[in-house]
Design a protein that fits this description.
CATH topology of the largest domain: TIM Barrel
Number of domains: 3
Number of helices: 12
Radius of gyration: 24 Å
Number of strands: 22
Helix content: 10-25%
Mean pLDDT: 93
Low-confidence stretches: 1-10, 16-30
Structural class: alpha/beta
Oligomer: single chain
Strand content: 15-25%
Largest sheet: 8 strands, parallel
Strand order of the largest sheet: 11-10-9-6-5-14-13-12
CATH architecture of the largest domain: Alpha-Beta Barrel
Bound molecules: alpha-D-glucopyranose
Amino acid sequence: MSNHNSPRHIQKTTCKILAAFGLLWHSSTGFCARQLTNDLGIVQQDDTTMQWFMDAKFGMFIHWGLYAVPAKGEWFMENHHMPPEEYRKFAADQGDGIYFDAKDFDPAAWTKIAKNSGIKYMCLTARHHDGFALFDSRHPSAFTSLQTIHRDLYAEYTKACREAGLKVGLYYSPINWRYPGYYDVRGTNCATNTWHYQTDPAHKENARLMKEEVYEQVRTLFKNYGPFDYVFWDGGWLAQQGTDRAAMFFWEPGKYRDPHNPWPVADAYSDFDDSGKALGLMGIARKYSPHVIVNRRCGWIGDIADEEGSKPVTGPVRPFYWEKCLNLNKSSWGYNGHQNLMTYDEIIRFLVEVVVRNGNLLLNFGPDRHGVIPASHAALTKRVGNWLAAAGDSIYGSRGGPWNPVDGQYGFTYKPGKYFVHLLPGYQGTEFTTPVIPEKATGCRDLFTGKKLKYTVAKDGSLHITGLNRNAHPADTVIMIQVKAMNKK
Ligand code: GLC
């Protein structure tokens, strides 16, 4: 008779439901795998390629650009209705010495902070919505750090990540507020915008130029700064409306571009496959970085789903690849003079609530205009790293489940030979009874203190664990249960 609480039963039942989502049960790995979708000529990465990401769990997001100067977040230009010409002043000394000088930018210091925090992959904004590029773009309308401070900041960043043995991620925003055409790609119907641009037939060509700059930059980034392990595309949505998918008629995010598209890109800024066909955004990405894992914010289906912001993570284990991104400084993604840091307990809670649901956490840092991550931020995440040094076995290389979590109270992770119970502050008490464990338990301990824990095994195979110390690390008490397979007859 099948046991309704056994992990295998739960997985199998879940997987039946998952078939509806285009997901498959892989009996060899014990995981639910996606049925790989070919979207716009590009097939999603397979489970083998996804493995490093699934094992890594914890990434560092970095928003850094001219917006660090006014220090009110990365949407400053839009929020303050600042015309592009005026916004440029943040890039050069206006006589007061206050500009984006990057004088203390030392990416090795960033990778050190990442490593101290237990972070495994990096993702820096190469260009945010303000259109300022931290890399060497040669498109005639590009606006770059090479023009302003004569530094290729992105080359320095990618080099440092590789030297530190961290996976290298690229953030790139096709959205570009420097172009009025962004709000009026057809030149016939300008969307409401903060700069009061009005419908103008010339906007169609302006939008084409904006797209051409994107194509030159994406080619440059992948050709000269790759290979990338990860990409966070940020926004195919046009005029800040609709969805990324709805805007694919314009950006052409798939493998190829249509030679008859109304917004053509000049050959000089295009990239081609061997047969001479012009590549779309994902075509370029995969040509140079065949193993790159990307999100779904450019209009292509994505290898991973993304969830943004500080909404609590709830519900069952998610049967797809996903990542949660949020801000260490709750005020904004880009550097903000107003410091409103997450607490240590909040960071641990998000990390755990995400990982027990089989996701990754991408935690954002906002360095100042000199390139410095505030010491208070680094000190806070170092505490996370210290905890991970003791309890990381329950996070890295694990998978969420096999049992569903209980919101705000507890959840599980597992890997061969081990189950981990994560007890959050919402769970009261010094005892815990596990679901039915199909293997034989050979030992149980508190992963943080290292102390052995007492337990009894019920007839159905569930463990009753007693004498838990909930004070040693209240943000998450991790119980490790070691098991070995029972000899089947
Ligand atoms: C949103 C914001 C952007 C930020 C991003 C991070 O798309 O527009 O400022 O970079 O979220 O997920």
